[in-house]
């Protein structure tokens, strides 16, 4: 029976007695209304030549069962040009894609954007090629944040 790469990595980490630590997370209080910021963020992602791979909407799910919670989205982004490079450098690092941007609604109705830097996400894999790619992604994330928060 074949195990997926994520399961194999988890087993190797368990056997080694360690685990990958979660990377630190940057947070930006945007001062913008939640829904308006989501639109700006999506535009900034496209402007910086990244793609939205998927979105998770916790408040949508809660609403479907009759519960109201503040706005809550995970926007998952990546691009095939980086996926190819990532997998060439490290198959186990594939579990990290797509990269995530987390948008939460604050009590005043404004959006907070939280995300780990790509360089922090890929650092544990110990690959110079991944480190170079992640540095490029750090610059792209900085541009996305700048463009979305102006």
Q: How confident overall, as mean pLDDT?
A: 90
Q: Given the C-alpha coordinates, what overall shape results?
A: globular
Helical coverage, percent range: 40-55%
CATH class: Alpha Beta
Oligomer: single chain
Most strands sheet: 5 strands, antiparallel
Distance between the termini: 51 Å
Poorly predicted segments = 1-18
CATH architecture: 2-Layer Sandwich
The ordered H/E elements are HEHEHEHEEHH
Radius of gyration: 17 Å
Number of strands: 5
CATH homologous group name: TT1751-like domain
In spatial order, strands of the major sheet run 1-5-4-3-2
**CATH fold assignment:** TATA-Binding Protein
The chain-level structural class is alpha+beta
**Strand content range:** 15-25%
Number of domains: 1
Specify the number of helices: 6
Characterise this structure.
The protein has one domain (22-149): TATA-Binding Protein (2-Layer Sandwich), CATH 3.30.310.70. Helix content is 47%, strand content 23%. It is built from six helices and five strands; from the N terminus they run αβαβαβαββαα. It has a five-stranded antiparallel beta sheet. Helix 2 packs across helix 6 and helix 4 packs antiparallel against helix 6. It starts with a helix and ends with a helix.
